[in-house]
Amino acid sequence: MLSRVADACFWLSRYIERAEANARVLDVNIQLMLDFEDQNESTVQQYWLPILATLEDQELFNDLHDGISGDAVMEFVTFEKSNHHSIISCVTSARENARMVREQISSEMWEQINRLYLYLLSNAARAAFIESPIDFYRSLVDSLHSFQGITDATMTHGEGWQFLQAGKFLERADSTSRVLDIKYHILLPTGEQIGGTVDITQWMAVLRSCSAMEAFLKISHGQVTSWGVAAFLILHDNFPRSLRFCADKLDLALHSISGCERAHFSNEAERLSGLLRSNLDFTTIETIFATGLHQYLDQTQLRLIEISDALVKTYCTWLDQA
Amino acid sequence: MQGFFKKYETGPFFDEMFSPDGSVRPHYSQLLDRFDGMDPMEFDRKRALAERSYLNQGITFTVYSGDEGTERIMPFDLIPRIIPADEWAVIEKGLIQRLSALNLFLHDIYHDQRIVKEGIIPEEIIRSAKHFRPELVGFDLPHNIYIHVCGTDLIRGADGRYMVLEDNGRCPSGVSYLLENRQAMKRVFPRLFNRHAVRPVGRYPQELLATLRYAAPNGNPDPTVVVLTPGVYNSAYFEHSFLARAMGIEIVVGPDLVVNDSRVFMKTTKGLKQVDVIYRRIDDDFLDPTVFRKDSVLGVPGIVEAYRAGNVALANALGTGVADDKVTYYFVPAMIKFYLGEEPVLPNVETYLSAVESDRKFILDHLPELVVKAANESGGYGMMIGPHASKEEVAKFRAAIIADPRGYIAQPVIQLSRSPCFIDGKVEGRHIDLRPYILSGEKTTIIPGGLTRVAMRNGSLVVNSSQGGGSKDTWVLDEGGQPC
User: What kind of fold does domain B350-413 have according to CATH?
Assistant: First the structure.
């Protein structure tokens, strides 16, 4: 496979996943806001600021908007073209990459991403957003899920597909770690207890934004605790958005590309993903909380960046460096 | 004419569907029956459906204005253009003859130049041709094929006779529209095709791949073939990726390729892989910055050296531009006689060379009545249609011809034949041409029909998509001619 094509597949997939993560986070935050009736300016800020903090584009936001409001943040994260992380930017970038590898992916995949792109630019998208943001974000997530389903059902599961998998799981691990980290940024209102109503509602929102609520409740017997939620989203072996699951699939994709055995590595990307995978396989939630959840998530995000860089170096830009 | 075509007027032009007395031409009668009962609203719905599907599939070309490109679909007209079997047989024969002569001509002028020595074409014309590549003189190509893919534009004048307007022997585009138009018609009018014996066109990509494989250097039986595109921002990118997909081969951009030891390789995730045949959709000028334009970022440094070493084939070959020079065009009928000893089946349009003194005088005296074309432009650029031109434009071309007589030709204005088109809820006549695609490989093959281009603006004679032209599906009826 052409190095440029591998690169485009990898990023196409990352952008799709990133768009989905944004839509989920916004959806959940709207709902969270609706759970708390006594909204004044400071509580509004308190809920929307972490979104900006985790998506890392606070400065640009401040340049464009006077103050933090739900509408301003939603606009910025959804439709703002100058924000390279906005949903519309992600979908546009995904489509550009898809166009570059148009002959590698199936026509069905291309048409799905192209339709979504055209929709987001249309007045219909605006109208739907104004009518009901929650429905709008849900239908967006649906469209992006359709893309994943179409990909698995219509594309040969060869090298190109493996690069798509690598991109998807790497980005998803990153999103899950960021969503968990949102909780770190939201301060509990004065007087509220850890484990109290507000705290628990916030942890439930974290679960919801990973579509993990139902799966979590099945194993937690109705008990929502910070440790329980974090353990589930970090260490569960079979939940498709947990860090451990994503790291495992990322590692599998990398080894499928090279043909190297899972127990070994043949390049730096595999070595790093192997390290991450074994760390997640053999750590406990107690150790993680002892390190500090925020620090642990931060480290994980750095490791993911290193894996991404190593993958690109190994397969996509190898000749440029030689 | 009744119903759908009730108010249709053929005007003083050759109409593809109706005779001057208003009766339908026999090969259109079945279509007339089908369409006549059609409600314009229903027809418009079908048109919108087809357009929507083009947009969703990304069958678009990019129009640049300012720094933002807009993606547009090429306007598609749902009333097909029909060519009866006997007419097509003549066109096919004429095109095969023409391409044989053009390939022989290219081989000749890059070798012995017999045609010059025997006084058929003045040496000056060849030497001054912008796209003549002296560095390739004496260079041998596999099977002596230069133009592997040709798009030759045909028009019909007032008497309905087919004439050759020009040969596009460098990187002709548009074939993806031909194929997609057929798909769109099948989706929108599924039952229409049962009732007509329309010859299929879908084999084009396979024929193209066979042609490209046949061009491989050293008779390599299993060559690696790629499509080389200027990139995703090129206006024809859709077509490049479409063809790569339909042939099941890689599409590459310049930076994907690297030349080592006079061989061309592509950079893959598993290392370098040698490339044998390149279907390049980049003009000669941009192909190799070490040989041609130094500022080209689209090309591959060293590719010409690999080509001259015989390690990679380019389709079309380097230097074919000399054959689609509009001054060379003038000599194609003479070439056919010279190389093949035959009379041309398809005539040229009457042409005046401003390089010839007597012709130049005639051209300058009759500028407002003539079509003037720059010898080396395409896509409807560098062209003046006298009767539609402003005084300033005429003056501009006059000065240009005097300054560079070799650079221009002139032709009488041909009122292109018209075909009924569905425009804003009504059926109106629009001028059309036909671009068949001719593949020269082990044998010469032509996909039945071609791309019918339509000048969508009322009265316009310019069919190029870059100038707002549209297209329609082109049906060649099967042997036995009449719809069943």
Answer: Dna Ligase; domain 1 (3.30.1490)
